[in-house]
Amino acid sequence: MAVSGRLEGMDSNISALTAKTKSIHSDFAGFQNHMVGLETRITLAEDRLNMLPDRDQELRYLRSKVIDLEDRSCRDNVSFFGIPECIEGSDVKHFLRDTLPSLKALTFHPPLELQRAHRIGPVCQDHTTQPCPIIACLLRHEQARQLLTAARSHGPYMHEGHGICIAADFSQGNQ
Question: Which whole-number Å values give the CA distances from 51 to 41, 47, 61, in the listed order?
Fold first, then answer.
């Protein structure tokens, strides 16, 4: 009886060990499936990471193209700095059309034509800060080039005691 009791005890221990082994095997299979999923994700992440230099180069190229296109679309724009706030009244375009030809060394044939003109930024009533610049889009590209060439060779112009600087309008990427 002692032997059969021992055998039954060993049998129950073996059954418990078998159950634990099956549980461990099941857990291991789950971990194995999880590891396969992680390896797949890591492989995909590495592939994407390897594509980053190409994407970075493409992004730089596209950014330069956008800046170039923006500059080309602004090539007829001219910026005016130093014109006091509110001196132009309600019509900036009319003010520039009348004022620019009166400045020294600026003559236009045919007469200067502007598509649009406006101040950039909020109107400041405070005269201690620098006035907001005016940007104007000229109808003729040649007049914009003529105006900018004259401004480069002449330097700042004076209008009613205020120095006026004239510059080309470039995109943010080229400023």
Answer: 15, 6, 16
User: Is 124 in contact with 85 (CB distance < 8 Å)?
Assistant: yes
Structure confidence at residue 174 (pLDDT): 64
Among 138, 133, 139, 103, smallest CA distance to 118 is for 133
C-alpha 41/C-alpha 47 separation (Å) is 10
- pLDDT per residue over 91-120, tens digit each? 888 888 888 777 766 677 788 888 999 888
Secondary structure (3-state) at 143: helix
Cis peptide leading into residue 131 (ω within 30°): no
How far is it, in rounded angstroms, from Cα 142 to Cα 9?
A: 105
Q: Measure the CA–CA gap between 160 and 129, rounded to whole angstroms.
A: 18
Q: Name residue, tokens 């400045």.
A: 103
pTM score: 0.63
CA-CA distance, 127 to 140, in Å (whole number)? 34
Q: Is 105 exposed, middle or buried (0-12, 13-18, 19+ CB in 10 A)?
A: exposed
CB distance 105 to 154 below 8 Å: yes
